[in-house]
Fold this protein.
Amino acid sequence: MHIGIAGNIGSGKSTLTRLLAAHYGWTPKYEAVTYNPYLEDYYGDIKRWSFNLEIYFLAQRFKDLLEINGSDKVIIQDRTVLEGVYIFVKNNLTLGNLSQRDYDTYMDLFNTMIATVKLPDLLIYLRSSVPSLVAKIQKRGRDYEQGISLEYLAGLNESYEEWIASYPGKVITIDADNLDFESNPEDFRLITDRIDALMFGLF
């Protein structure tokens, strides 16, 4: 089984992935942010490096998806390949950071690749407002993230809402602004109760 954690930058995906993996005994799969050779350049000059960054992410996420599809374990993934396409690539096209030519090339490659694999059985979407995202981004202190604009985050949020509204599979939406699921057991239990109800027919 494949469970994806979806959400904007700073929404708490990695934290929730870690907590749910420990709680249920699932195998976590984390996004390789630290090792992306384009990420720092991207935030320094988004228009110049968008295509390079998105192709790199696509390759890495597709490798992850092939591994997940070949596993008999329950795997919980911090951001799926779908977000790279329907959120970040789409947003960069809308903002003019990605040309139509590069977008068409990217989508042709994505559609060819995705036809060969199975998509997540469940998405857990962490909905967060821009002020909440900014606070969390500042708190974790990654240098390359500090210059992210409010416009960029807001555009991503709009794309997330549109994508989730039309997603054909199972989705649990968590309003994360007022939850501290890392430090507050009651907040974490609100999430696990919803997962239990959907996946195991409990409650």
